[in-house]
UniProtKB/TrEMBL annotation, chains A, B:
SUPFAM superfamilies: Actin-like ATPase domain. PANTHER family: N-ACETYL-D-GLUCOSAMINE KINASE. It comes from Brachypodium distachyon. Belongs to the eukaryotic-type N-acetylglucosamine kinase family. Its EC number is 2.7.1.59. It is an enzyme of class 2 (transferase). One of its GO terms (molecular function) is N-acetylglucosamine kinase activity. This is N-acetyl-D-glucosamine kinase. Residues 16-328 form the ATPase BadF/BadG/BcrA/BcrD type domain.
């Protein structure tokens, strides 16, 4: 790794952090020589670029790689830099699940930048975790948006995940899962299998349809998971207004989400052998946004703390792309320290 | 309806029964002048033709109508008849759910046959019911194959259905529902959210994959519901071998299926005001085939009989297309009797 003097990064060198998702892809550019970031407000972002989907399972590998290259080059240009200034990159991309996915991306990105640069390829949950821990890879992250996943990392690099298997495979705590349960409750109330619920009136109003019979056609007209998940606010407001069916759906979702965190924490012994150590839990995603009367994330934390009282909840103040960049930054500075024996 | 002498059908006249499904479409041709069928073996089938999918939601309206026309003309040719011999037709087609679907099909079929012929357009559940009641429209049918639905009709023509809303909307008693729960149980055992189960070994062996991690890719590689439902026999054999998780999945499915029948019977008062009258329950579909040690249909009937002791289970001995033809036959003969004042 030679070539730097004074055990420090070259003055003009930069670090890229990429958060690649199914909806959009964000790349931020940070100066490699910045001091350790003490607070979210202190991160000196040089530039930020946005592009479309980079999930290879959604748009195919070529299109995904093209998007990633484009967003990184745009961020460099915006910062007045070029590819030769790049010292480290962290790509945190959804759809990267297997070591083989990781290896293929590493082989690809090495060809874009100088030979001495460092590269890290991770699942997008890793950037979400780092966005809450300011780049330190330790603890658990719970993401609950359209989908849901719990992902944990120990200080010595062991990882574990739970849920995140999509709607067919039981992600009932996700936005999709909550909304699908609500739609099912409307169908069951209509055909006599379940209790009456205000969800019927509220969901029909929201979708501007006249009868539960039309829900079947609406549901299968489009296979987008996000379109179903967009009904979560209707479920939350119905629960807040006292609807028992909506309340049960949210309580069940809380159990599912808490259960996925507990499984990860247990497998990684994140809470120590006695089960009482503190560990960070980063909470991310629309379902966990906590400014509602029916506080889903608050209930999830309460459930987890009954098993692991050391849970320390964190809501990230920076976006996942910055989490990815901080991850690359701290990996890079650890390497520098090792090389300089400090 | 004039033109027939002796209050009987013309000697060469025929009746067509069509069972239109998502996998295949079957048309049978019966002589209109046949006597009332006393037993399944006594139905004098003149011809039987088979074609592909006629579910308009799957292949589009034009392709569906083309398939239906083709299969009817083929059955007529095979019976040595032509369109002018047709006296009555019953089309019982999946994907026909709304009165507007029915009306459009009636308008279409009227142009294919003589003006004096009679036409009936129904959902495919109706033919399944008629296949068990030998053409009499009264009682309830429970279909559980890839999907599931309970459908009932009263003697005075009131109808009700429950379930049948597909995998997103809670058809957990269907083959798809049972198999999706089993796949979920494998994922949960693997990531620490659920108990260990033999389903893991059995499903991985059946799918020829090495690890539960690969199940996610397998599941979303193809959106066919039937491909998931094909795992039901693995769940049944695991339950028969004593696996608790598999047993719970089947018991839950039994509750769902029984619940859908109970909802229909209750709404239609099929069991009389006191709840004790006899009513026929026709059982159709792969999930309800009763020659296994773990007897799903037997358990469903037991559950229903606890609420409605008058349930009279029937396993059809003829196929749904014959059910559709018998329906057209009995409608036609009722009309004849009315006209002749008998």
């Amino acid at each position: 790794m030679g070539g730097y003097e004074n055990g420090d990064s070259p003055a003009g060198g930069v670090i890229l952090g990429v958060d690649g998702g199914t909806t959009s892809t964000v790349c931020v550019c940070l100066p490699a020589a910045m001091p350790p970031p003490e607070s979210p407000g202190a991160v000196p972002v040089l530039s930020r670029a946005v592009a479309g989907c980079s999930n290879r399972n959604s748009v195919g590998e070529n299109a995904a790689l093209e998007t990633l290259e484009q967003v990184m080059m745009q961020a460099l240009t915006m910062a007045g830099k070029d590819h030769s200034d790049v010292i480290a990159v962290c790509l945190s991309v959804s759809g990267v699940n297997h070591p083989s996915d990781q290896q293929r991306m590493l082989d690809w990105i090495r060809k874009l930048f100088p030979v001495h640069a460092q590269f890290y390829v991770e699942n997008d949950a890793v950037a979400a975790l780092a966005s809450g821990t300011m780049g330190k890879l330790h603890g658990c992250v719970l993401i609950a948006g359209t989908g849901s996943i719990a992902y944990g990392v120990t200080e010595d690099g062991k990882v574990a995940r739970a849920a995140g298997a999509g709607p067919v495979l039981g992600d009932w705590g996700s936005g999709y899962g909550i909304a699908a349960q609500a739609l099912t409750a409307v169908i069951k109330a209509h055909d006599g299998r379940g209790p009456q619920t205000n969800l019927t009136r509220e969901i029909l109003r929201k979708l501007e349809i006249a009868s539960p019979d039309e829900l079947i056609g609406w549901t299968y007209a489009d296979s987008s998971w996000a379109r179903i998940a967009a009904l979560v606010p209707v479920v939350v407001s119905s629960a807040e207004d006292g609807d028992e069916v909506a309340n049960k759906i949210l309580h069940d979702a809380v159990q599912e989400l808490a259960g996925s965190v507990v499984a990860v924490v247990r497998r990684l012994t994140l809470c120590g052998e006695e089960g009482a150590d503190q560990f960070p839990l980063v909470l991310v995603g629309g379902v966990l946004e906590g400014n509602k009367k029916w506080n889903i994330s608050g209930e999830v934390i309460k459930c987890i703390s009954e098993v692991f009282p050391g849970v320390h909840p964190i809501r990230p103040e920076v976006e996942p792309a910055i989490g990815a960049a901080l991850l690359a930054w701290s990996h890079h500075h650890k390497e520098l320290k090792l090389e300089n024996g400090s």
